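Researcher: Here's my situation. A collaborator sent me these components and asked whether they could plausibly form a single complex. I don't have experimental data yet, so a predicted model of the whole assembly would be a useful starting point for our discussion.
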Amino acid sequence: MEAPLMHLALVGTPNSGKTSLFNALTGSRQKVANYPGVTVERKEGSFVTPLGRQVSLVDLPGTYSLRGRSPDEEITRDIVLGRTPGEALPDLVLCVADSTNLRLTIRLLLELKSTGRPLMLVLNMFDIATRRGVTVDVPRLSETLGVPVVTSIAVRKGGTAELLRRTDEIIAAQAPQPARPNLWQPLNVAQLRATQREADRIIAATISLPARPDTWTARIDAVVLHPVAGLAILALILFVMFQAVFAWAAPLMELLATAFGALGELVSDTMPAGILQSFLQNGVISGVGSVVVFLPQIVIIFLFILLLEDFGYMARAAFLMDRIMGGAGLHGRAFIPLLSSFACAIPGIMATRVIDNRRDRLTTILIAPLMTCSARIPVYTLIISAFIPARQVWGFINLQGLVMFGLYVAGIASALGVSSLIKFFMWRDYAPAPFMLELPDYKMPRPRSIAIGVYTRAKMFLQRAGTTIFAMMVLIWFLASFPQPPEGATDPAINYSLAAMIGKALEPLLAPVGFNWQIAVALIPGMAAREVAVAALGTVYAIEGGKEAAEQIGAVLATKWSLATALSLLAWFVFAPQCASTLAVIRRETASWTWMWVTFGYMFALAYAASFATYTIAVALGAG
Amino acid sequence: MTEQNGARPQMPLGLARLGYSGVIQHLAAGDASSALSADELESRLIELGFVEGVRVEVLHEGIVGRDPIAVRVENVTIAVRRREAMAIIVA
């Protein structure tokens, strides 16, 4: 008979090397999902012990105690206590410690003991500790704590051998023993203090601490956390990151776009013309393709984020930016996600997971789509080159470039403004999360761990492109294609479609901001992805060539629209929630339809107000 | 691990300058104007290792208002805002 699946759980303080241990034990056999109803990431993997036992391992959110002061920490507490419906009570809890920094973990371990769960303390990064002169009397520590203790070097091949061997022993010895009762109670301040003192006593008796701290970390921090040099270095890192996202990703994105284009051509060449062909080519291939082309950018952004996180720099970036962002009601940790949103709001919103406070995270998610993402660039470029003269102002600044820069500034300024308003109106009575963060010692990033992280994110992105985004694309294709034009129709097919009917129905609503029905129609497929609006305008104005003939579209627009309409459309694109994928990600990351609709609603209102103001002022100045 | 340093006047860590080194005398979470309740702030400080008798050193400061500060607590470095550090009385 096959032995039942064993459930193991990893518990540890943040920065304990829990994730690298998880990666070392499970490799790529990982599943990332969300715990039902909360935004907390659930990471589960599996492995087989040397004696052939099947083990399922969950990586629980990092925590300093079982008090459960955030949704992440509540998950950790509830799973360890077996309070989560549908989650197995762990057969063995692995408490992971950074061997160079045992104080806080030993206190956590003492608290874990009261839960009655079988425990094992894993002294991770034992190689670094040894190099620094930390010596641990492992048998004595184990005896004092009353818990098995093993050392491990997660990042080295075979570094988890002892951990696996002891796991087998514990599994074998466990079955006949009756489970110990759960005596855990939330600790009050006095008990917490007493536990920390006991932990310090145990450490004094069994561990000799290094005479020398990590000199590398001190040397790097002397520069990286310097108030002036540190900010300059941060700016340099950001510059390289932007360069990478825009320049390095471009050839790959073109390659993907070409591949999807060729696939579409293949379908149109090999299949008879008709609804099925149109569905495959325009609905499925170009629709999913327009999202999948962002994969290189997403991979590069996450590569940077994971490298910086693994190295230990992220906590420093948050330290440097905390007060600077605090003025707008944002937490220091919101910095990187907002930055990522300049490439695309999707990885930006996914990166908000580094913010542990729920409300700080929500604020960041709500404003992330206001950052000027790369999908707005084709739209901006088209309209600016058609309507803004390419002349110099003040002798040296290109007016077109200045308008582009102005649009970026408008995005950032409105994001900060919205964040201040959210802080002021929605959460006025709410205590802002204090900034209390461990600055871990620097570590060389581990290629394997980074690769697993990037692979997991890319897989999640593609899965979403294959489900939610696919469904949206099919809907939009349907609206733009049905009903079919009557026999002998001369206008473009889209003019007879549901999309056109909706466009015409929307026209009275959009007239005050200077949009005609053609723009309204282009905005509908533009909901799928902003840059699709460019191709859609091309279709509506019956231009052959679509995206490839962008200059030609511009020439046509210049004759059909007033300057006021063009400026109004630019203002619209700064704010409008013109991206179904972003809305889908907000829905997924917040696990709530409400926040998705709140984002949609406020961005729509801002877009309408901004366009209305732009149009009215432009007309008054004679640009109508 | 316990050190006494009776000769020096007590002060909140939130007022300490760059390079200051001292020993935690007690926690006065009620005195800090933190948004957290006194109990919650005290619990979090203890969880990060700020316990009586531990030596702390201010290693770094931010650029705006010299805030936040990076504090060495035993062999860990913790970043806190000065507002919360007001609850840590050192000498």
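Model: Some features of this prediction you could bring to your collaborator: Chain B has one domain: 11-90. The longest strand of chain B covers residues 21-27.
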